[in-house]
TrEMBL record:
Coiled coil: none annotated. It comes from Acidithiobacillus ferridurans. GO terms for molecular function: heme binding; oxygen binding. This is Globin-sensor domain-containing protein. Residues 10-99 form the Globin-sensor domain.
Length: 122
């Protein structure tokens, strides 16, 4: 939907990461003056729920590490997310290389030709 006029940074961040459809984003923009003061409490409740569920308790470990090293939990979470992105990139790259190796072996075609054929479909 884009930026809302006169919306606080916290509300704009919520709108940007929410994944809500445009109609819901419009409602969030309209309610921003009432929503903004409640964001800290909503964030606290969100983390309380994460910490209460053992499947998402890693946040507790991130928070402990952040406090030990003097960083904010947001900084540590951001670094962890970048690290996970890099790991996913490496996994995807290895998968793609193995796929191309197998296609080349099975068809006898050179990788460049296979790439061109794959790109024709796009």
């Amino acid at each position: 939907m884009g930026e809302c006029n006169s919306v606080t940074g916290d509300v704009q961040s919520l709108i940007n990461i929410s994944g809500f459809p445009p109609e819901d984003e419009k409602h969030l923009c309209q309610l921003s003056q009432h929503l903004a003061p409640r964001i800290p409490a909503l964030t606290d409740r969100f983390y309380e729920r994460l910490l209460a569920d053992e499947r998402t308790r890693i946040h507790e470990e991130i928070e402990a590490a952040a406090q030990t090293e003097g960083y904010t939990i947001g900084t540590c979470t951001r670094v962890l997310m970048h690290l996970l992105d890099i790991c996913q990139y490496l996994i995807d790259s290895a998968y793609e290389a193995e796929r191309m190796r197998r296609l080349t072996a099975a068809t006898g075609m050179r990788p460049a030709l296979l790439e061109n054929l794959i790109n024709l479909r796009n």
